[in-house]
Design brief:
Elements lengths: L13 H4 L3 H12 L8 E3 L2 H8 L3 H13 L3 E4 L4 E4 L2 H5 L3 H11 L7 H8 L20 H10 L16 E5 L14 E5 H7 L8 H14 L13 H10 L9 H12 L4 H13 L1 H6 L4 H4 L3 H12 L3 H10 L18 H6 L1
Antiparallel strand pairs: 1-3, 2-3, 4-5
Helix pairs in contact: 2-4, 11-12, 11-13, 13-16
């Protein structure tokens, strides 16, 4: 078991006192989790943060932005490396620890945070002279300017422009996923949007996005089962969902969610009906936002989706409402309705 020292003066630090609860909680996690290193700079996947803290991706990103702004901790999304700025100062005294950190830095895949770390703790540098850390070369100045000029010095995510925000040149397909330093793979981004994007692919067409999703499915194949399961009640529920989403993967998380709902007393028929309701719901009809995790997240949601599936013409009314067509009674009209809704027709 590894122990970490925490100075009691932490709580009187104005930077800590200025944080909201989520920021304080995440900072404590960053200095005490099982992935930490004495140097305070270490590999920490996003998935681990979400799983171990219970914070949503959006909340954790906001908290990381706050910690970075206060110069308490920084996160490199391309390499999934975190650096708690003052951790080595309190945890890593002595030459032995400096040598350990020098050896550890070579495992961090040339994260740009390594340069920042060495600027703050230059005495570590002399222990890695024989095997210097490989640094990632920056973009040529001429290429960077061409991208900024092409995008009219405006962030392509939020629309803000210089001099109101600090502009950077962002990789559409991150270098960590094989993206190249080519103008077609570069776009202008403000610092905040670039930090919030992390290592996701953005601004690409449907074909490229589909290829990216296929790549993610392949990389998760070690922990995921095939896309179909024909040997259990869980498999029957999943196959009903997979009929419309053949590329979806039945991983351990989804297996547990379906299993928990079956254990709670729901039948296979009820869960497959809920999945039908999910496809008919406004979230899917209007936005195409459909996940089985969302549909089966709790009993209240399941009951709501079953009602949707069993209500005649629900999807058509959602589409009609989106198009602005309504009946005299106020209900939205579907594409098959001519002047009045299904309920008014039944009442005649």
């Amino acid at each position: 078991m590894v122990y970490r020292s925490i100075e009691t003066s932490l709580w009187s630090d104005p930077r800590i006192r200025g944080l909201k609860f989520q920021g304080r909680y995440l900072f404590l996690y960053l200095i005490t989790n099982t992935h930490t290193h004495v140097g305070g700079i270490y590999y920490l996947p996003r998935m681990a943060i979400a799983l171990e803290t219970g914070l949503s991706d959006k909340v954790s990103q906001t908290a990381l932005d706050t910690l970075s702004g206060a110069n308490l901790a920084h996160y490199d999304d391309d390499h999934q490396v975190v650096w708690v700025v003052n951790m080595f100062r309190y945890q890593g005294r002595g030459e032995k620890n400096a040598i350990a950190v020098a050896n550890h830095l070579r495992t961090l895949h040339a994260s740009p945070l390594i340069d920042d770390f060495l600027d703050r703790y230059p005495h570590v540098q002399r222990f890695i002279k024989r095997t210097p850390v490989k640094k990632r070369g920056g973009l040529p100045t001429t290429l960077r300017y061409r991208v900024l000029e092409r995008d009219e010095f405006t962030c392509q995510y939020c629309g803000e422009g210089a001099p109101d925000v600090v502009l950077e040149v962002d990789h559409i397909v991150p270098t960590s996923r094989g993206g190249r330093d080519e103008i077609e793979n570069l776009k202008t981004s403000c610092a905040r949007c670039n930090n919030g994007k992390r290592d996701r692919v953005s601004g690409v067409g449907p074909q490229e996005q589909e290829q990216e999703q296929e790549k993610e499915i392949k990389t998760s194949s070690r922990s995921a089962t095939p896309s179909r399961d024909n040997g259990s009640e869980i498999g029957l529920v999943w196959n009903h969902f997979a009929d419309r989403h053949p590329k979806a993967v039945l991983d351990e998380k989804r297996r547990k969610i379906i299993g928990a709902r079956l254990k709670a007393g729901y039948t296979v028929e009820q869960l497959t009906t809920a999945i039908d309701g999910l496809h008919l719901s406004r979230w899917h009809v209007e936005k195409g936002n459909l996940t089985i995790e969302y549909g089966l997240r709790n009993a209240q949601q399941i009951e709501k989706l079953i009602d949707i599936a069993e209500t005649p013409g629900h999807a058509e009314r959602v589409r009609g409402k989106k198009a602005g067509r309504t009946c005299g009674c106020g209900r939205a009209l579907g594409p098959q309705d001519h002047g009045e809704c299904w309920k008014c027709r039944e009442g005649r």
